[in-house]
Specification:
The protein contains no helices and 21 strands. It is mostly beta strands and 227 residues long. It folds into 2 domains: 73 residues; 108 residues, YVTN repeat-like/Quinoprotein amine dehydrogenase (Methylamine Dehydrogenase, Chain H), CATH 2.130.10. The strands form 6 sheets. Strands 4-5-6-7 form a 4-stranded antiparallel beta sheet, with no helix packed on it. Strands 8-9-10-11 form a 4-stranded antiparallel beta sheet, with no helix packed on it. The protein is globular, with a radius of gyration of 17 Å. The model has no long low-confidence stretch (mean pLDDT 94). It is found in: Preautophagosomal structure.
């Protein structure tokens, strides 16, 4: 919660959120145009970038040194990237790749995942339990929970009737919130067991697009943004 990364048509920018009065720009890069994914490893110098020019390639940089650490190419367009201090997760439409953050080696490939056109996935920022959540079905709101440390499936959660629209872990990785494409109900589950803890009714109106869910750092609040 201390920095902001923005992809732009000319490259990407990193900002510090430490000051309330102003947005302090930490870094600006114009080396790669049309950046649609930029993920920074917390407040470190490591940043992962994907551009529309090469949507199948992930570039990992040390932005303070101005050097490229490595790059990886995949079989189809990269839809999302998640990272914590232990793992780097690359999500494609029908597969997920898990890398070890220390040496960027590929540890596991989860193949033949249900069609995930938005690249919906969540990774716990607490590296002690690097849980990964992604849609377990294209037609129902089933959540597949995967343990990124042991590289084994943890459980399957029947979260919603309709397909999933949003997923997020709390800061400790002990809770997971989800919403479906219908957008009327938000549910919170315990991790790793998958028991339902809370159910919030967002509204009665049918079909609202929930674009994001996020817990406050102390897990006391859950914010949902929609259209």
């Amino acid at each position: 919660c201390s920095s902001l990364a923005i992809g732009t048509t000319t490259g990407y920018r990193l900002f510090s959120l430490s000051s309330v009065e102003q947005l302090d720009q930490v870094h600006e890069s114009n080396e790669i145009p049309d950046v649609y994914i930029v993920e920074r490893l917390f407040s470190s110098s490591l940043v992962v970038v994907v551009s529309h020019a090469k949507p199948q390639q992930m570039n990992v940089y040390h932005f303070k040194k101005g050097t490229e650490i490595c790059n990886y190419s995949y079989s189809s367009k990269i839809l999302s990237i998640r990272l914590n201090r232990q793992r780097l997760v690359v999500c494609l439409e029908e597969s997920i790749y898990i890398h070890n953050i220390k040496d960027m080696k590929l540890l596991k490939t989860i193949l033949d995942t249900p069609p995930n056109t938005t690249g919906l996935c969540a990774l716990s920022i607490n590296h002690a339990n690097s849980y990964l959540a992604y849609p377990g079905s294209a037609t129902s709101g089933e959540i597949a929970l995967y343990d990124g440390n042991t590289l084994k499936t943890a459980c399957t959660i029947p979260a919603h009737d309709g397909p999933l629209a949003a997923l997020t872990f709390n800061s400790t990785g002990s809770k997971l919130a989800s919403a479906s494409e219908k957008g009327t109900v938000i549910r919170v589950f315990s991790i790793p067991g998958g028991q339902k803890l809370y159910e919030f009714r967002r509204g009665m109106k049918r079909y609202v697009n929930i674009s994001s869910l996020v817990f406050s750092m102390d897990s006391q609040f859950l914010c949902a943004s929609s259209n």
